[in-house]
Write a structure and sequence with these properties.
The complex is a heterodimer.
Chain A: H1 7-17, H2 28-34, H3 38-61, H4 71-93, H5 95-101, H6 112-120, H7 127-157, E1 159-160, E2 163-164, H8 174-177, H9 179-196
Antiparallel strand pairs in A: 1-2
Helix pairs in contact in A: 1-7, 3-4, 3-6, 3-7, 4-5, 4-6, 6-7
Chain B: H1 2-48, H2 59-69, E1 70-75, E2 78-84, E3 91-101, E4 106-113, E5 120-127, H3 141-145, E6 163-165, E7 175-177, H4 183-204
Parallel strand pairs in B: 6-7
Antiparallel strand pairs in B: 1-2, 2-3, 3-4, 4-5
Helix pairs in contact in B: 1-2
Classes of the chains: A mainly alpha, B alpha+beta.
Chain lengths: 203, 213
């Protein structure tokens, strides 16, 4: 079993060198779907970070008693339970946003980032580092989504968090609201980052 | 063999634990969720019936206003919301759910007509899966408001209650602006809404006489 890395390294990996969206191209479905409005993006980020942290912690706490061959089943059960809790909480307190996010909160269950962290980190490490790892990776995901929303909402709606920031005569770019707008934004972002900071294996 | 039994028992216990967690949260939140949905629908019904709801009206006040002004009834399997006149007997309007197939998924809304069923007084869509910024613009005021005052005559062969035209090209009162860039969504709305209004005029309106007093 590999030694647990220190907290600084965990955060550096989650936010930058192993950033789930930019480096591993995980969680793309929700990245494309919810980033046309900043409010939706922030709620989605909170939901994912909560699910990720709680799932990683739980998987880590149970790591010594979970039989190896049913571990995937156990992970899916844990992740799905937390996601349903998140979905219920959003429906209870933020009904409008729940409607805007539609099925995407439920789809956190299938977000590869969550199960990826459980498999790659939490099942071999103690709870506290697992929590930090989940938090770092979740923040890495969140930062990318916020950046994309910062491009899409002003260009697509002329607003940011619902406040008008573009001049009156500005014609919204409808394509920025739709999934292709997110593809372009994300594609260009990944291209730029990889051009300046190549992944080590590619060097 | 022993490990297999352990695996099954372990999974069983864990499932019970997590189901209990989800069930607990669900039972704590379901009243509030149901209430959220009811309030949302009530707000929309009051709006399409042109009953003024001040901005920032509390949930309690809204529910009270709805209770005092709206009588819920049904004809056959169709729900109806009858608005009592503000003063005196009689009705101020009739609201009813309308719905049908959109381009991507089902669309649900509420339409309201005057007590005689001669014209639309309001229309709102509250559930759809159309593309945001395109078909999704059906929830915007400019689109819904143009239905206000639309004359209602039962459909005949070759004549619908209303038609969509490209924005700006409508000339007659029954011609309304379609959503630019969302031809399919607009056509879907034209198809089901004409049907639903026609059904109301032909099958529901006549049976409502007893309710009016």
């Amino acid at each position: 079993m590999a030694k647990t890395p220190p907290a600084g390294e965990i955060f550096k990996a989650g936010l930058w060198s192993d950033n789930p969206v930019l480096r591993q191209i995980l969680g793309i479905c929700s990245t494309l779907a919810v980033t046309n409005l900043m409010v939706n993006t922030l709620v989605m980020n909170a939901g994912l970070i909560f699910t990720l942290c709680m799932s990683s912690m739980t998987v880590s706490l149970l790591r010594n008693i979970t039989p190896l061959r049913i571990r995937m089943m156990v992970q899916v059960l844990i992740i799905a339970s937390y996601v349903i809790v998140v979905d219920l909480v959003i429906q209870t307190y933020l009904p409008d946003i729940s409607e805007a996010l539609g099925p995407y909160v439920g789809l956190i269950i299938t977000n590869c980032i969550v199960m990826g962290r459980c498999e790659a980190f939490a099942r071999n490490n103690p709870p506290w580092p697992s929590f930090l790892d989940a938090l770092a990776v979740g923040l890495g995901y969140a930062l990318v989504l916020i950046f994309i929303a910062l491009v899409r909402e002003p260009l697509g709606f002329g607003t940011i968090l619902g406040l008008r920031i573009m001049p009156q005569g500005f014609t919204p770019w409808t394509i920025m609201i739709m999934a292709p707008g997110a593809f372009f934004t994300l594609g260009i972002l990944v291209w730029i980052i990889r051009a300046f900071y190549p992944i080590q294996a590619e060097e | 063999m022993k490990s297999r039994v352990y695996s099954i028992l372990y999974m069983f216990a864990l499932t019970v634990a997590f189901t209990a967690l989800v069930g607990g949260v669900k039972s704590l939140s379901q009243d509030r969720i149901q209430r959220n949905q009811e309030l949302k629908l009530q707000r929309i019904i009051l709006r399409v019936l042109d009953i003024k709801v001040d901005r920032g009206t509390s949930d309690q006040d809204l529910a009270a206003l709805f209770k005092s002004r709206i009588k819920t009834t049904s004809v056959g399997d169709r729900l109806l919301y009858l608005a009592r006149a503000e003063k005196g007997p009689g009705l101020a309007g009739i609201a009813f759910p309308v719905g049908g197939k959109g381009f991507w998924g089902p669309i649900q809304g509420i339409a309201a007509v005057d007590p005689k069923g001669e014209k639309l007084v309001g229309l709102a869509f509250y559930k759809h899966s159309e593309t945001p910024g395109l078909g999704g613009r059906m929830t915007e005021p400019w689109f819904q408001d143009q239905f206000k005052g639309l004359a209602l005559r039962p459909m005949e062969k070759g004549r619908k209650i209303f038609y969509f035209k490209p924005a700006g090209a409508s000339r007659k009162p029954e011609e309304l602006d379609a959503i630019t860039g969302a031809t399919q969504s607009s056509m879907a709305i034209e198809a089901f809404l004409n049907q639903e209004l026609d059904y109301f005029l032909k099958n529901i309106m006549g049976k409502l006489e007893g309710e009016k007093s």
